[in-house]
Amino acid sequence: MTHLRTRAVHAGQHPDPATGAITTPISQTTAFALGTLEQGAALFAGQADGYRYSRFANPTVAALEAKLADLEGAAAAVAFASGTAACSSLLLGLLQPGDELVFLGPLYGGTEGLLRGMGERWGIRVVDATTGGLAAALTPATRMVWVETLTNPTLRLHDLAEVARLARAHGAISVADNTFCTPMLARPLEQGIDLVLHSMTKYLGGHGDATGGIVAGSAELIAPVRKTGLGHVGGNLAPAEAYLFLRGIKTLPLRMAAHCEGALAVAQFLQSHPAVRTVHYPGLPSHPQHDLARRQLQGGFGGMVTFELARDERAEAARVLDRLQLFTQAVSLGDVDSLACHPASTTHSFVPQQAREAAGVGEGMIRLSVGIEHPDDLVADLGQALG
Ligand code: 3LM
């Protein structure tokens, strides 16, 4: 299996040995029969392999972890009940009081809030290197570097190989949130990044009907994240949700191609509209990192398009958003349905105003998650809303 499109269908899945069922069954069970006392003791001592309790591991969840690890080229992965549970488990599992975490923003507002909030609470120094740059922010105490493969909502890129190199030179673990790109467009581990993270709630699920997160990387790094996140925090993914992600990922390559096609058409249309000041889409030659995007992203430039209105005001954003008909006004992204939101008042309302403005998230900014509908219909909807 060399092609991602084949691996998206088959990786992690085998006909059920008990029944021959082709689709991975939902193992809707809390506990597993341990056998004899000594067999149970061996399982709990880690001297034998097998399932014990679904908070620690579950066959449906394990199939999903194997599929995602395969797609990201990772040795191991651990799934969680949300992307946010994945983020907090990663921090709690790998950082100690006194450590330093450096991030390049903007990040999803919830992640930034989590980093800043948990950092303060747990004695971790959190440094925002968005303006000053990564090289200047790294110190001997830096233990972790955090980036998004396409930033939410401004759709900027970071040179992942360079981020990985700098982090490694300082003995820090590099983390890339690959939610916006998915392994179809970016595979950070191949660039030297240590851990990759997803909110599966978005493109991996793809249908807006399940919440989940996952972290993938080396067995050495995933083990403490699993132990803390599942064993201590208890943020495990439910088997029924794992089933939805397993099913969603099978069509991810096809969906991503449609998202990318629609997003490019939408971005090109917006770019030519007089009511629009700037369009942020890495597939446009006008994007300041178009060359990096061409090098780093494979197979397309993603399904997200963010734009700034010529009149940079909340009232103008409301005028446009409130008139959309095909795009639903909602947070979240990556669904087959098109969604639109106002980041300053929703996804990034948790970020202090000054940091938000420094990251370029203004009141006249609108973020689109372009679904898989026909691009002409999406363009027509935007056309009538912009007026
Ligand atoms: C959003 N984002 O609309 P969950 N990493 C990234 C994300 O975009 C998100 C998470 C992690 C949005 C959610 S805003 C109230 C809704 C890049 C989520 C967190 O915990 O699964 O939501 O993932 O931008």
Explain this structure.
There is one protein chain. By secondary structure, the chain is of the alpha/beta class. The protein has two domains: 4-250, Type I PLP-dependent aspartate aminotransferase-like (Major domain) (Aspartate Aminotransferase, domain 2, 3-Layer(aba) Sandwich), CATH 3.40.640.10; 252-386, Aspartate Aminotransferase, domain 1 (Alpha-Beta Complex), CATH 3.90.1150.10. The protein is built from 15 helices and twelve strands. It has helices spanning 4-10, 37-44, 59-72, 83-94, 109-122, 134-137, 160-169, 182-185, 219-232, 239-250, 252-271, 290-296, 314-321, 353-358, 375-386, and strands at 76-80, 100-103, 125-128, 142-148, 173-177, 195-199, 213-217, 276-280, 304-309, 328-329, 339-341, 365-369. Helix 8 (182-185) links the parallel strand 5 and strand 6 (195-199). Helix 1 runs antiparallel to helix 3 and helix 3 (59-72) runs parallel beside helix 10 (239-250). The protein is globular, with a radius of gyration of 21 Å. The structure holds ligand 3LM. Residues 82-84, 108, 110-111, 148, 152, 177, 179, 199, 201, 211, 213, 331-333, 347 line the site of ligand 3LM. Ligand 3LM binds at residues 82-84, 108, 110-111, 148, 152, 177, 179, 199, 201, 211, 213, 331-333, 347. Its cofactor is pyridoxal 5'-phosphate.
Brief characterization of the structure:
Helix content is 39%, strand content 14%. The protein has 387 residues and is of the alpha/beta class. Helix 3 packs parallel to helix 10 (239-250), helix 4 (83-94) packs parallel to helix 5 (109-122) and helix 4 crosses helix 9.
